[in-house]
């Protein structure tokens, strides 16, 4: 009998591999054929990484950060039967604004994809006189309507919750500066309509543990579970040789997600494999999505690797939650409501 429950639609075709024998030090293990997306995945695009996927009509759809050969990142749509092998649409996603006119951000990166009720939302980072949050909605993956800038600059890593809480959309984000910011905590904001955001609260701070001492940012859309919202996020440390990005885990209160119930003091995954340690930006593992199946407790984590590849890791809900709880260390910044 599973110990904990996931509240989500069943996903019997989730990609999966069993835990290898002898695996230690983390409840996540890597897919043996990683990376799942290699270099030069389509004409004009040099690298795909930091990307998000979702089930759609029996198959899978994804929004992918494609670094063009001119160096500018943009978002591309991809389709897959198994969520491992992907076919990409050759053109950038053709957003339109709310009047139906074409809208093309100057750049767009680190997309997340979240379904709330009957609408899919893409959330990314784009220029708004500096790095800020972009949002668009679609119901058919043909028409993508961009919603005007939800937040002020500078901000990144916006992650929408998969359902409303107390009737409002909930979005995490990470206010920062416009460069390779050397600071950043996770905050949460509420909206009745995806247009107007308020009730901003602090969720959790950087600096708790060495591997996440510099900055943190939301990763995959949180998974609703019987213990709370399961969040995979990224944490960054600064070394004499540059930043290192690891994947962390926390569980947020189900009714008041600005309250952290448990926060794992150990990372769940850190750069160890060649495709994580070597690439355009070495030593980056950057989670942007999960697939998850409530019937089996299986979770597949999609993460960008070294700003060059997409990696896939697997874990089991019970083991992940127990690992986070057994190794939890929270501070007052984490456990308070985050309203000052
Ligand atoms: C962050 C973001 C991510 C990137 C990471 C490492 O600031 O720009 O897109 O993966 O840096 O370069």
Itemize the secondary structure elements and their pairings.
Elements: E1 29-30, E2 45-56, E3 59-68, E4 73-80, E5 87-92, E6 95-96, E7 108-116, E8 119-127, E9 131-138, E10 144-147, E11 155-160, E12 169-175, E13 186-191, E14 198-204, E15 215-218, E16 223-225, E17 228-239, E18 242-252, E19 260-263, H1 274-277, E20 285-293, E21 298-305, E22 309-316, H2 317-326, H3 332-335
Parallel strand pairs: 6-10
Antiparallel strand pairs: 1-22, 2-3, 3-4, 4-5, 7-8, 8-9, 9-10, 11-12, 12-13, 13-14, 15-17, 16-17, 17-18, 18-19, 20-21, 21-22
The structure holds beta-D-mannopyranose.
Beta-D-mannopyranose (BMA) binds at residues 50, 109-110, 180, 245, 281, 284, 286, 304, 307.
Give the C-alpha Rg: 18 Å
**Gross morphology:** globular
Compute the separation of the termini in Å. Answer: 42 Å
Ligands in the structure?
beta-D-mannopyranose
Query: Which strand order do you get reading across the main beta sheet?
Result: 6-10-9-8-7
Question: Could you characterize the architecture of this molecule?
Answer:
This protein is mainly β and 340 residues long. The chain is built from three helices and 22 strands. It has a five-stranded mixed beta sheet with strand order 6-10-9-8-7, with no helix packed on it. Strand 16 and strand 17 form a beta hairpin. The model has no long low-confidence stretch (mean pLDDT 97). Bound molecules: beta-D-mannopyranose. Beta-D-mannopyranose (BMA) binds next to strand 7.
């Amino acid at each position: 009998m599973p110990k904990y429950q996931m509240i989500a639609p069943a996903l019997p075709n989730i990609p999966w591999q069993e835990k290898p024998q002898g695996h230690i030090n983390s409840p996540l293990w890597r897919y043996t054929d990683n990376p799942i997306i290699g270099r030069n995945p389509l004409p004009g695009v040099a690298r795909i990484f930091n990307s998000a996927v979702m089930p759609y009509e029996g198959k899978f759809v994804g929004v992918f950060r494609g670094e063009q050969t001119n160096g500018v990142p943009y978002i591309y749509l991809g389709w897959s039967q198994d969520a491992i092998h992907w076919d990409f649409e050759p053109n950038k996603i053709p957003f339109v604004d709310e009047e139906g006119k074409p809208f093309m951000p100057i750049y767009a990166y680190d997309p997340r994809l979240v379904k709330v009720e009957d609408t899919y939302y893409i959330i990314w980072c784009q220029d708004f006189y500096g790095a800020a949050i972009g949002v668009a909605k679609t119901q058919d993956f043909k028409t993508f309507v961009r919603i005007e800038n939800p937040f002020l600059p500078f901000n990144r890593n916006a992650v929408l919750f998969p359902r409303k809480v107390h009737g409002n959309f909930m979005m995490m984000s990470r206010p920062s500066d416009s460069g390779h910011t050397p600071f950043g905590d996770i905050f949460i904001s509420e909206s009745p309509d995806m247009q107007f955001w308020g009730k901003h609260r602090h969720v959790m701070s950087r600096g708790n543990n060495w591997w996440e001492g510099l900055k943190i940012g939301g990763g995959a859309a949180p998974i609703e579970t019987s213990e709370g919202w399961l969040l995979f996020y990224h944490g960054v440390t600064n070394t004499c040789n540059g930043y290192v990005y690891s994947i962390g885990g926390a569980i947020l209160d189900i009714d008041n997600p600005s309250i952290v119930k448990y926060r794992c003091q150990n990372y769940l995954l850190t750069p160890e494999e060649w495709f994580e340690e070597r690439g355009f930006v070495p030593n980056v593992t950057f989670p942007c999505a999960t697939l998850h199946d409530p019937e089996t407790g299986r979770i597949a984590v999609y993460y960008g690797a070294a700003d060059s590849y997409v990696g896939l890791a697997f874990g089991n809900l019970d083991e992940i939650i127990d690992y986070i709880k057994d190794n939890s260390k929270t501070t007052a910044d984490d456990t308070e409501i985050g309203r000052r």
